[in-house]
């Protein structure tokens, strides 16, 4: 038992240092293998995405911050027009350091869709 | 923006987006912010045009400005300022320099 504990301790130390260094290809990390093997380690959490997207929308000058919720529709609920829509999407691009292609950007016209798009984007930062 | 014309709404929005993207590439904070403001103001001013010839004139004007902006962004980037404007520093960053 003592030998096993010593062995485990030896094996765990490199795992933790590598985890700190952000290494993702650690085949012996049985304690935390699922997270380390997944490529979504540094992915944003849904609450973070929602919080940041709502902040972007609230700081838009033509928007009334008290009416912003995660379900709000830009043109129907907030009274914006398509130009403002484009601006908001550009602001979201800047916030998350993304490049949203035109075809996708045209479809995003509510907070819901924006949050989903950012959350599902692998490069969101 | 309410009226359809020979130039579709999608094209106008696409031009708007390209202009804003090009504006982002400027290195100088002041020019970048001015360009963004100017683009937004120009499009808002012309949003209620209904005459197709006016619309297409405004659209080609926009496209010409897009070309100018792209060229200027490239030229400015060749001589990028070494010191960033104070407006670009994050809050609570170092006071030195």
List the helices and strands and how they pair.
The complex is a heterodimer of chains A (125) and B (97).
Chain A: H1 2-20, H2 33-37, H3 46-58, H4 82-96, H5 102-107, H6 111-120
Chain B: H1 9-24, H2 29-45, H3 52-78
N-to-C terminal Cα separation of chain B, in Å?
A: 47 Å
CATH topology descriptor of chain A: Non-ribosomal Peptide Synthetase Peptidyl Carrier Protein, Chain A
| Helix and strand pattern of chain B | HHH
Which bin fits the share of residues in helices of chain B? 55-70%
What is the mean pLDDT of chain B? 86
Helix content of chain A: 40-55%
Verbal overview:
The complex is a heterodimer of chains A (125) and B (97). Chain A is an all-alpha fold and 125 residues long. Chain A is built from six helices and no strands. Chain A has helices at 2-20, 33-37, 46-58, 82-96, 102-107, 111-120. The termini of chain A are far apart. With 97 residues, chain B is an all-alpha fold. Chain B has one domain. Helix content of chain B is 62%, strand content 0%. In chain B, α1 (9-24) packs antiparallel against α2 (29-45) and α1 (9-24) packs parallel to α3 (52-78). Mean pLDDT of chain B is 86; it is low at 1-5. The interface between A and B is medium-sized, with 10 and 14 residues.
Features:
heterodimer, A: mainly alpha, Non-ribosomal Peptide Synthetase Peptidyl Carrier Protein, Chain A, 0% strand, B: 97 residues, mainly alpha, 3 helices, 62% helix, elongated, disordered N terminus
Quick structural summary:
The complex is a heterodimer of chains A (125) and B (97). With 125 residues, chain A is an all-alpha fold. Chain A has helices spanning 2-20, 33-37, 46-58, 82-96, 102-107, 111-120.
